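Suppose you are handed only these lines of text.
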Amino acid sequence: MSTASSNTDTARVFIFDTTLRDGEQSPGATMTLEEKLQVAEILDTMGVDIIEAGFPIASNGDFEAVATIAKRSRNAVIAGLARAIPADIDRAGEAVRHARRGRIHTFVSTSPIHLAHQMKKSEDEVLEIVTNTVTQARNLIDDVEWSGMDATRTPLEFLARCTEAAIKAGATTINIPDTVGYSTPEDYYQLIHDLIEMVPDSDKAIFSTHCHNDLGMAVANSIAGVRAGARQVECTINGLGERAGNAALEEIVMAFKTRADALPFHTTIESTHLARASKIVSAAANFPVQYNKAIVGKNAFAHESGIHQDGMLKNALTYEIMTPESVGIKSTSLVMGKHSGRHAFKEKLRDLGYELADNQFQEAFQRFKELADRKKHVYDEDLVALVDDEIGSAADRIKLVDMNVTSKTGGIHRCELVLSVDGSKVEVNHDGTGSVDAIFNAIKTGVGAKPHLVLYAVDGVTGGTDAQANAHVRLEMNGRIASGNASEPDTLVASARAYLNAYNRLLIERGAPAQGALAG
Ligand code: KIV
Ligand code: ZN
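From them, the structure of the protein bound to zinc ion can be written out as follows.
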């Protein structure tokens, strides 16, 4: 990783991906260790410079994820987040210790509103904290990033003094978060520009953007920051993140690539991995991507209107500013049937970007065979849904074994259910106002808990009445939210499995850092 002083390519922008930290903080986006490793793998493969792998002090699970990603990463710098607390910094240092290149990212609030109401500290006390924490981190590792939380609502003078203190103490990256997504591109440009001008030795650190999307300006603000001199952009795949999310990695990368005339900057991201990365993150976090999402949405390259279709047929350039292939979108192909064997299945999965462990492969192959028996055409999308489902539910402690649903118009709806709970068989029956209600009631009785259903939605993986149903469920229990997903030819089975998948995620151990410790 080049540092501020060694970076001779002045147009090069470093991509810092925080999908596994800021993205995973998004309510309901909890990922299992296996899923985090899968996300880290694609980020590393596509050329992300820095992967923020988690917040090691938050829980043993977070620590293990950061430490494992640190050990496995081939190219990227692996960062661990730490509050301005000695124990946090030690834990982050420990987690990234085995990375080829590790980073401690420490932050403290700087805005008057945070200082008065959350931190209850004076400006002088915060300045001392900046010096002490960055010094502590630098004693553990030579790559240290400092962030001033709520920087965009901090008086410039004070933010400049904090930045100066951080650089003096050895910070090599200075991150300026728009924590609450309040900035406009003009404000943000001016802020980065002024800081670089005002702070002595600002050339000793790389300035970084970190923009939230509350007003829908996260990407525009990040790009304004780069135009003003920032050379690191913090972002997430699909713009995942708390509230309205973070700046979307794929949009920033493709903006630089497509509009090099107006934005003469470049990253090292191999853009043909973007669509795949989007799918992996969407499946891991159980967060559907909106259909019209720029770059990776289902409709991003679809042309419906007659005029557009006519133009596209004559010359794609009439309505296409970048090609679907440049972001890794391949046209749907009819792939496999019930006669396809293990070898062809393995090759196809490799094509789609999956390398499964042996037992996972066997399970996925078995499910593919069952699907091919029931469904005439098996498309790439079916295989992606099937494998994502397999990976997403592999760690589930509670699984569906059998289900029988009877339903009568105007009559009774009843579900007979067999579950496996930590390996033991549990049988329950329950009625409901409809089939889905009966299924969810039966599951609640079976697991002995009553989580609140926040969201239930079903869509088709492909078109046609024989399409697999993709069910999404979001549950809330004791202040925690988790999402679940499942794909099955049968909508009711998909619904039951999605509910169980969400419930299983509520069981994943997750530390609860002190209130307000995690910003968006
Ligand atoms: O938005 C924010 O301020 C953050 C910091 C922890 C960097 O995510
Ligand atoms: Zn953030």
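What can we learn from it? The mean pLDDT is 91. The pocket of 3-methyl-2-oxobutanoic acid (ligand 1) is lined by residues 22, 107, 147, 149, 175, 177, 179, 210, 212, 519-520 (CB under 6 Å).
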